[in-house]
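Re: weekly structure request thread

Next one in the queue (365 aa):
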Amino acid sequence: MPRIAIVHERFTEFGGSEAVVGELAETWEDTEVFAPIVEPDGVRPPLDTVHDTWLSRAYAATGRRSHAPLLPFVPRALRKLPLDRFDAVLVSHHAFATQAAFATDAPVIAYVHSPARWAWDKDFRAQEAGGRAGQLALTALGRLARRSELRAAPRLSHVIANSRAVAERVGDWWGLPATVIYPPVGIDRFTPDPTVSRDDFFLFAGRLVPYKRADLAIRAAQRAGCRLVVLGDGRFRAHLEALAGPETTFLGATSHEVLLDTYRRCQALLMPGVEDFGIVPVEAMACGTPVLAVDRGGSLDTVVPGVTGEHVPYGSDEAVIDALAGAMSRFTPATFNASTIRAHAETFSSKAFRTQIAATVAPYL
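Done, posted below.
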């Protein structure tokens, strides 16, 4: 039985990429998972043990306030991982994980959520930086990330991208081809309920961070005169609450039960930001809920216009707000069939992911 190592950059919070690592670990019988920084609350079943490094202790010593000051040390920690006893290494990459390729002579397959957008895209970096000091720090870290990614690229045996948009970035920024395998979505936990009636509100769900562009959803709701529910929390929340009017309700971070109920009752989910893939829209579609999304990034893979939702043209903030407000104003729920939307969401299941990933990795074992 081949031995497989899985390397992730950090387990400081649980999100879509951490769920991908769990599915990778379940795909083969004999796997071990490594990450430089591990917060115990960031590890969930099916994962039980994650091998970490001294950076976890450093993170704990700072009170786990932020992992950002430790990022310059992450590449070296990854290059020192004990990976020489494994037959293949899978890396789950956002910025630095491909540095694990220097810790082994075995084949290295990279599952790329995205090359570091804040390193390669100056507009994205400016949006995320949060002031002059943050801009300077992120610019310096971006140089390190670009050098690290380019240095590791020739050592990768195969690159898998989580969407067509990410595959294009891999080609443009790394000069490598990439196979597209969509990430697994836990659609069994998100189902339609024909006994639940649709209410008269739209929904934004996700982390409240700048690149998700909840601000565009809020301003579009104001312009359209539509109710909006914002579900989630994050460092951008205070800014968003100051921007919002009485038509917008913030629910904060909620339970799975509340999220499921809100998916089922909303008119449609709004996706105003450019996502690498976007787990939340597929969760909503698994509930039979249509999605209104900008026509960039992962929505090109997940949203089928006229079938599972609609695309609005990507452009300036004002252009997106106008287009999204128009789509909300003329939205007609009867246009969409919940069963058809659900059937589309099933193509992004965990089973589909495991089958494709196993077939892609098999030639390297």
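The chain has two domains: 4-184+349-364, 187-348. Residues 132-152 form the longest helix (21 residues).
Next request, please.
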